[in-house]
From TrEMBL, chain B:
Keywords: Signal. Residues 27-378 form the Leucine-binding protein domain. The keyword Signal applies. Residues 1-24 form the signal peptide. SUPFAM superfamilies: Periplasmic binding protein-like I. The keyword Signal applies. This is ABC transporter substrate-binding protein. InterPro entries: BCAA_transport, Leu-bd, Peripla_BP_I. It comes from Desulfomonile tiedjei. The lineage of its organism: Bacteria, Pseudomonadati, Thermodesulfobacteriota, Desulfomonilia, Desulfomonilales. Belongs to the leucine-binding protein family.
TrEMBL record, chain C:
CDD domains: TM_PBP1_LivM_like (cd06581). GO terms for cellular component: plasma membrane. This is Branched-chain amino acid ABC transporter permease. Keywords: Cell membrane, Membrane, Transmembrane, Transmembrane helix. The chain crosses the membrane at residues 12-33, 39-60, 95-116, 171-190, 223-245, 257-284, 296-316. Its main location: membrane. PANTHER family: HIGH-AFFINITY BRANCHED-CHAIN AMINO ACID TRANSPORT PROTEIN BRAE, HIGH-AFFINITY BRANCHED-CHAIN AMINO ACID TRANSPORT SYSTEM PERMEASE. GO terms for molecular function: branched-chain amino acid transmembrane transporter activity. It is a multi-pass membrane protein. It comes from the Bacteria.
Length: 308, 433, 334
């Protein structure tokens, strides 16, 4: 029984920690979506550029990778604004399919520019306050510091975004733009600038996420691919545009991909066949997609979504 | 006057065409397919550099090298014709690989093909080569299925995963019997439980099957064996499952970044195994060491090359030096294998003395390259011509290396298997995290 | 009979369209006789395959306006049906083709029913999700080879028309060309048919469509099934053409996105759009790759150029290339 509880606690902790990371990565996507109804295929590439920004700060200046956070935020902000004025602004004139293929082009573009400049080798930082650190809680529950910090940062970022959206004039303007861009324009809100601000904020948060993830994940031009699909599922599960929804959905996704290790705990309890767990691991992302599919069918706007 | 020039020009032209007739061919084109963009771009670069170095040596006289192909300029039996590689990027996409193979065969008129790293791409490319009857030499795809098809135009220089996995269990048994340098005999139970995790595409699932099958008779089969998605952001649940039985031995097969992430995850989960072994690819690539640094200490990987081979083979050290001056890196398993396959091409062409497919096919089936010629510690190259493993090099052997800290503080791959080639005492058990 | 007449009735197109279409059709017929490189031949086959994929996608994605990013699952069903039946039971392509299409259509009904409760982005992501789940299933299903994939053995005698095994590529070319024309003519009927009209109505305004008594849910499911049949047919062809299939290859997200991308870039919702999209993107990708793809120091340049062109078209005319053509026509007639 003790072994069961311990293994279960380990699985749940790992799931929640990973969930915090997913939430942080998905936050930028949901901001952009919330304001302008556009799915950004290049989201993972923004993350990758944030990671490279952090990496270069750490290696060129020999600083702790944590100093990369503000740098990556600035880079991400600039990148978001540049993408908005250079590409997205034009895509908004067309139907939804145009946004998809436009941002798909952006994804390929950023990935291959990174390949051309930075090369294909996975790179990572070797020393730093958070790098490779973890501590043991109680009878053997390992907490990885990077993921915990990602959790802390995402709470901060979620809090900040919540504050911006609810308590500031800019946030109200953003919300107004999101609800009805045309009406907002009549009210004198510069919707164009609000849109670009959303892209800037989205880029800044995901850039920061990248710089933080660098403490654990190696960076290479294709790294965005790993997170994009999960980020999409997370955002959609939470409901497009809902900031708290993204946070909750991140945790759910984190728990779902740990179903195999939870099965481990149960098999300790009932003495099931341990080899079966191999099969479960093959399906661990399918659990996420299946959960998304089922929740969507019964609640077509996501857990916390407020618009279609 | 004008007519005079014309006559002179014609004369010169005639002279040239006579010359070229005498030499027959002055350039031999070999089509090469590597993944230069996409997930395996880093390995593609290694392979390319290795192949290009071999061509450089074959086309020029380098008397300081103890290698037959360094003695001549170009292919002697073809009148000193030079080899030219036509390299194409297949992006890890089997369909694109097949299309590019057709381009190379029919449009660029290559005499043969080489490539393609990903087993999946190699399969479609080999099917094209078979359809057109053009020889293909594969240097780095280790899926055993490739030589099980009875392909008549496909030869593989590298040992395949069956051999490598066999080596692993021979090594593990030898380890318990005290055959490994620096380790006393101990009870086999100390290596248990064994767990394994392989990435879940073509290659990894083949390795997984091989580990289960070959490990069983010796009582060393894994208690838990997982397949995981390599293109995924999180391996912590896999790590949890593997560690839940407190494993002594951990076996892996990973392509690139996932191998790095796996070790990082194990470290963060404070794993304490006695032995970690990786099935090449991600575990022997240069960026594995550069990304993980000292965390690699004690990790074993199967490979076909380590710079340490240079201590027992002079020619390996010489070629490694050339490679280092050219690229700034040591030869890795990938670049050494690409080098060796290109070398095999040179020998086949030399033996055939012709670029006709039938002659090349015959030459490839008959060619025998001695161990002294090669930079990899094999017993030579000789392809099977009958039986179920058609076209496989029977003299290839695997190696198992262990990352250890060198005198300069850098991590280096020391050889621990084959036992007689060992270059250092093995660290066992490793300290874990 | 009426349906057949409608299928060949192109009279509502401007004359220039038809002239270009006839010229292209003639070119496609005689292409193998013209001097060409075999890379050009392989590229043409790819172009035709993606045209048919795109035509299929266009029924639901273009006429119906439902952005489907999960078509690769049906490519997989088609390809695997053909490969499994050929390897296990030695059944020829022409037998497994309709079976594969039926299986794919059956599956599309099963998931289509809940799927079409979703709209817009939710729908797009749900299609990706179903496709990836099916890929996971195929990867761990040992009966069909699992992640190791399947290899179709070469037959002793070539050409073999029953099993679609040829040494020369032009046989494959004419087979897929036949698919192409059949698809085109079917689509010409489809766009004028009742269901085609209903779909366009739904795309413009779903509420209004419903108030007119159109069962929009059912109409979408039917269009989705049509799209699926197209895609599965080409999937079967892919298995014979490539001799080797794996989930990672035929069921990847990349393929799903590429199918949608070609149709969207050409112009979703027009008959010619997907063909134009494939005609531009496929050769561009192949030739850029062949020219710049392996230049040392410039790795990635080909895809940078490729993606820049995609972005430029998207930014210049979000309705795709067909949108540009329409725009030019309008400015002329003004």
């Amino acid at each position: 029984m003790d072994a069961f509880l311990l293994q279960m606690a380990k699985a749940i902790t790992a799931g929640l920690l990973m969930g915090l990371v997913f939430g942080l990565v998905a936050l930028g996507l949901t901001i952009i979506f919330g304001v302008m109804d556009i799915v950004n295929f290049a989201h993972g590439e923004f993350l990758m550029i944030g990671m490279y920004a952090g990496l270069l700060t750490a290696t060129v200046f020999g600083l702790d990778p944590l100093f990369g956070l503000p740098v990556a935020a600035v880079v991400g902000f600039a990148l978001g604004i540049a993408c908005y004025y250079g590409l997205v602004r034009f895509l908004l004139r067309g139907p939804m399919v145009a946004q998809l293929f436009g941002t798909f082009g952006l994804m390929l573009f950023l990935r291959n520019v990174a390949l051309l400049i930075m090369g294909a080798d996975p790179q990572s930082v070797h020393s730093g306050l958070l790098v490779g650190k973890s501590f043991v809680l109680g009878p053997g529950i390992v907490i990885e510091v990077t993921k915990l910090a990602a959790g802390g940062l995402s709470l901060l970022a979620f809090g900040f975004m919540w504050w911006v959206m609810k308590r500031t004039k800019i946030g109200k303007a953003l919300t107004a733009t999101a609800l009805d861009a045309q009406a907002a324009r009549y009210m004198g809100i510069p919707t164009e600038r609000m849109n670009s601000l959303a892209w800037g904020l989205g880029g800044a948060t995901v850039g920061m996420a990248g710089a933080l993830l660098l403490n654990f994940w190696p960076v290479e031009p294709n790294v965005g691919l790993l997170f994009t699909m999960i980020a999409f599922a997370t955002v959609a599960l939470g409901g497009f545009g809902s900031i708290s929804g993204a946070a909750v959905a991140g945790l759910i996704v984190g728990l779902l991909i740990n179903i195999p290790s939870m099965w481990d705990a149960f098999s300790m309890l009932i003495g099931g066949d341990r080899l079966q767990v191999g099969l479960l691991h093959q399906f661990k992302y399918s659990f996420v997609y299946a959960a998304y599919f089922l929740i969507m069918v019964f609640r077509p706007r996501g857990l916390f979504g407020w618009k279609h | 006057m004008a007519r005079g020039y014309l006559m002179a020009a014609l004369a010169v032209f005639a002279a040239f065409s006579l010359c070229t007739n005498a030499i027959a061919v002055d350039e031999i084109k070999i089509g090469v397919l590597y993944p230069l963009t996409g997930g395996a771009a880093a390995e593609g670069k290694e392979l390319r550099d290795g192949a290009e170095l071999a061509v450089e040596i074959a086309n020029n006289v380098k008397t300081e090298l103890d290698m037959a192909m360094a003695k001549n300029s170009g292919i002697k039996s073809l009148g000193g014709a030079k080899i030219k590689l036509i390299i194409q990027d297949h992006q890890g996409n089997p369909q694109l690989g097949a299309d590019l193979a057709k381009k190379l065969i029919q449009d660029d008129k290559v005499v043969g093909l080489m490539g393609a790293y990903h087993s999946a791409v190699t399969k479609t490319v080999a099917a094209v080569a078979e359809r057109y009857g053009v020889p293909m030499i594969n240097e780095s795809s280790t899926s055993p299925a490739l030589t099980k098809e009875g392909l008549k135009w496909f030869w593989r220089t590298t040992p395949h995963d069956g051999t490598f996995t066999n080596d692993l269990f021979l090594f593990l048994q030898g380890l318990t019997q005290g055959k490994v340098r620096g380790v006393k005999p101990f009870d086999k139970k100390e290596l248990l439980p064994i767990v394994s995790a392989c990435e879940k595409t073509e290659w990894g699932s083949n390795v997984d099957a091989a580990i289960k099958e070959i490990g069983k008779p010796s009582g060393l089969e894994p208690q838990i064996s997982l397949l995981y998605a390599a293109k995924a952001p999180d391996l912590s649940s896999e790590g949890q499952s593997l560690l839940s039985v407190k494993p002594a031995t951990m076996l892996f097969a990973g392509y690139g970044a996932d191998a790095i992430l796996m070790i990082k995850t194990l470290k963060s989960l404070k794993a304490k195994p006695k032995l970690i072994w990786g099935q090449n690819a991600g575990f022997e690539s240069p960026e594995f060491v550069s990304a993980l640094g000292e965390d690699t200490e004690g990790i074993l990987t199967r490979t076909v090359f380590s710079p340490r081979v240079g201590e027992v083979k002079k020619v390996s050290a010489q070629v490694n030096n050339l490679y280092k001056t050219k690229t700034g890196r040591d030869l890795s398993g990938a670049s050494a294998r690409a080098f060796t396959a290109t070398q095999a091409w040179v020998h086949i062409l030399e033996k055939a003395g012709s670029t006709k497919p039938q002659d090349l096919q015959k030459a490839a089936n008959e060619v025998k390259i001695d161990a002294d010629e090669l930079i990899v510690p094999w017993q030579g190259i000789k392809f099977t011509t009958t039986g179920p493993d058609l076209g496989q090099n029977v003299l290839g052997t695997g190696m198992i290396g262990q990352y250890q800290k060198g005198k300069d503080g850098k991590m280096i791959l020391e050889i621990v298997y084959p036992f007689e080639l060992a270059t250092a005492d093995m660290i066992f058990p490793i300290k874990g995290w | 009979m009426e349906a057949l007449r409608q299928a060949f009735d192109f009279s509502d197109f401007p004359r220039t369209d038809l002239c270009v279409a006839v010229a292209v059709a003639v070119f496609l017929f005689v292409f193998p006789a013209l001097p060409h490189s075999s890379f050009a031949m392989a590229t043409m086959i790819q172009f035709l395959m993606f045209s048919v994929y795109g035509m299929g996608w266009n029924t639901i994605g273009g006429y119906g306006g439902q952005v489907d990013l999960g078509k690769a699952q049906y490519v997989g069903i088609g390809a695997y049906t053909t490969a499994v039946m050929q390897i296990r039971w030695d059944l020829p392509f022409w037998v497994s083709l309709p079976i594969g299409m039926s299986l794919a259509v059956g599956w599309s009904f099963i998931i289509g029913y809940p799927l079409f409760r979703l709209r817009g982005h939710y729908f797009a992501i749900a299609t990706i999700a179903t496709s990836l789940i099916l890929k996971d299933v195929f990867e761990s299903w040992s009966f069909i080879g699992g992640a190791r994939g399947l290899k179709i053995p070469l037959r002793a005698e070539m050409p073999d028309f029953w099993f679609l095994q040829f040494r020369e590529d032009y046989y494959y070319y004419y087979v897929i060309l036949a698919f192409f024309f059949v698809g085109l003519i079917y689509l010409n009927w489809f766009r004028q048919s009742r269901i085609g009209m209903q779909l366009r109505c739904i795309k413009d305004n779903e509420e209004m469509a419903r108030s007119l008594g159109i069962d929009s849910h059912w109409a979408k499911i039917k269009a989705y099934a049509v799209a699926t049949a197209f895609v599965a047919a080409v999937g079967s062809f892919h298995a014979c053409y490539n001799f080797n299939i794996e989930p990672e290859d035929v069921m990847s997200l990349d393929l799903s996105v590429l199918i949608a991308l070609m149709a969207m870039l050409g112009g979703a919702g027009s008959l010619w759009g997907p063909i134009i999209g494939a005609a531009i993107l496929v050769p561009m990708k192949n030739y850029l790759g062949a020219w710049f793809g392996a230049k040392a120091g410039l790795i990635g340049l080909d895809l940078i150029i490729y993606s820049t062109i995609i972005m430029a078209i998207a930014a210049f005319e979000p309705r795709g290339i067909w949108g540009i053509v329409t725009r030019i026509r309008q400015s002329r007639s003004d």
